[in-house]
């Protein structure tokens, strides 16, 4: 399966218990053997697949991405992405959000993953912090992740914590100065998005 070109739309799909759950159309910034970078633009519409477990965004009535958009850096095999956020009218870079998730798997239309709830925030003007531990443990108890998956997520969290504590982050901080192409329209869900098969 080939790489996407800058400007292509790639569908970021979450797959839970073997079934598609939610999909977000993203804009490809860079793609290659070592790094996949995608951008979620403000106003991007989410697509919710029929699923036995209703997605929490759908329950909250959250149907589109809000804010200034986010950039996501993915390395093959990593069980997390590095997400960049900006704030305010001046689009000030706020920091790096390490989003624990299943290692991405390429598809013909984008890539599949699954958010793991447990995250870390590393602001530009403060110390890093772990986020959503209680939410993660509640999801384990509720059956979203089985025991083996939960232990793997906890192990990844320890690895990320050690990386942040030691200050040996791998990504280029220059991504904080990145800006989206003003000519890019907000990606839309393609016709038939509900029917894209699993890889």
From TrEMBL:
<dbReference type="InterPro" id="IPR007295">
    <property type="entry name" value="DUF402"/>
</dbReference>
<dbReference type="InterPro" id="IPR050212">
    <property type="entry name" value="Ntdp-like"/>
</dbReference>
<dbReference type="GO" id="GO:0016787">
    <property type="term" value="F:hydrolase activity"/>
</dbReference>
<keyword id="KW-0378">Hydrolase</keyword>
<dbReference type="Pfam" id="PF04167">
    <property type="entry name" value="DUF402"/>
</dbReference>
<feature type="domain" description="DUF402">
    <location>
        <begin position="55"/>
        <end position="167"/>
    </location>
</feature>
<protein>
    <recommendedName>
        <fullName>DUF402 domain-containing protein</fullName>
    </recommendedName>
</protein>
<dbReference type="InterPro" id="IPR035930">
    <property type="entry name" value="FomD-like_sf"/>
</dbReference>
């Amino acid at each position: 399966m080939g790489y996407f070109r800058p400007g292509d739309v790639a569908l970021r799909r979450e797959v839970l218990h073997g079934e598609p759950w939610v999909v977000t159309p993203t804009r490809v910034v860079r793609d290659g053997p070592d790094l996949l970078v995608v951008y979620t633009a403000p106003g991007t519409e989410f697509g919710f697949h029929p699923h036995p477990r209703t997605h929490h965004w759908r329950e909250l009535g959250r149907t589109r991405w809000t804010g200034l958009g986010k950039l996501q850096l993915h390395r093959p095999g990593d069980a997390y992405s590095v997400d960049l956020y900006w704030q305010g009218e001046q689009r000030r870079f706020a920091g790096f959000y390490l989003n624990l998730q299943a290692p991405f798997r390429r598809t013909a239309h984008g890539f599949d993953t699954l958010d793991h709830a447990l995250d870390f925030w590393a602001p530009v003007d403060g110390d890093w912090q772990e986020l959503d531990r209680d939410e993660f443990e509640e999801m384990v108890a509720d059956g979203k992740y089985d025991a083996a998956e939960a232990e793997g997520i906890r192990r990844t969290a320890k690895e990320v914590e050690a990386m942040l504590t030691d200050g040996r982050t791998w990504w280029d901080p220059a991504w904080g100065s990145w800006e989206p192409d003003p000519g890019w329209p907000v990606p839309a869900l393609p016709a038939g998005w509900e029917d894209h098969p699993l890889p």
